[in-house]
Amino acid sequence: MSVDWEPDPSDSLKTFGAFVQALREHHGHMREQFAPLVRFSVHTVASIELGRRMADEVFVERADQVLGGTGALLRAAKHVSRQPGLASWFRRWAQLERHAVSLCTYECRLIPGLLQTETYARDLFNNRVPPLSDTELESRLTARTDRQRLLRERPHTTFDFVIEEAVFMRRLGGREATRSLFDHVLAVCELRQVTLQIMPADSEHHAGLAGPIRLLETPDCKRYAYSEGQETGRLIADQKDVAALSMRYARLRSQALSPQDSMGLLERMRGAL
Question: How far apart are CA 59 and CA 91, in angstroms?
Answer without folding.
Answer: 15
